[in-house]
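Action item from last week, closing it out:
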Amino acid sequence: MNKNKNSDAPDNDNPEWTHRDTAHAVAFTGLPAGLQGKLRGRPKAAETKERITIRLSPDVLDVFRETGAGWQTKIDAVLKDWVVARKGKLPATVAKHAPVAKRAPDAKRAAVAKREAMAKRAPVAKRAAVAKRPMAAKR
């Protein structure tokens, strides 16, 4: 897109194609399958997740963020586990698309022990900085 006020001026970022450029062009269907997949982007899921805003404690966020990539998905899995524990099962629409793996009681205890160990290893300065964070102004 040419952002110049004079639209007749050439766009140096996206010049017009010459006959030579057109002759060397390859149709999308002529590209290798792997490259086609990359150019198309991520396929749409049958049922997408809903974007929301949620306020969580900084210490809870720190624990999940420390696990690396996919920490939001892990929060989703924990919430699904909570729903299963409370209701005995997920609603049919959720269960159909995202089954929750059942954990053995020993695995739950191990997860709790791991969280407690991580909390003990957190630097004291970091915990103090988190406690001193200013509250957001209410609207």
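Closing note: The chain has a mean pLDDT of 77.
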